[in-house]
Amino acid sequence: MRLDDxxxxxxxxxxxxxxxxxxxxxxxxxxxxxQCGHSAAEIYLEVQNSPAFREVRRRYRRFVVPAAAAxxxxxxxxxxxxxTAHDLMARPVVGxxxxxxxAGLGQFLTTFLLTWAYARHARLHRDRxxxxxxWETQEMTRGAGR
Length: 146
What we know:
The protein has helices at about 40-50, 50-85, 85-90, 100-145; strands at about 20-25, 30, 90-95, 95-100. It is mostly helical. The strands form 2 sheets. Strands 1-2 form a two-stranded antiparallel sheet. A two-stranded antiparallel ribbon has the order 3-4.
């Protein structure tokens, strides 16, 4: 596995010389993708249809969809309880803290926990596969110009 980023030196689309229709040729210079032997559409479709890309997308959806649904339900429950269950939300927990304040602080806590869980999931389950896919795509564009 390679840890460095093959596209680190490449300017982003809209910045500098690259507009998404260029690739790095075998000599390391930017050339049009067509000059390297592949059209941008062919490379994109090949990557999109690859099992590695589908696996990255599947892993992403398997985490994001349930996490977003759970967080949305938790947020809506808090809002509905705050607007309809005044007696419950006003119930004291400890000292001046009531249920509404604890639940509101819980919203912040779950936001940070969800962010941490997303970053951890990406690092452990998607980043390596995505980087390998990026390397393969880079090698396709480099090898096409030889």
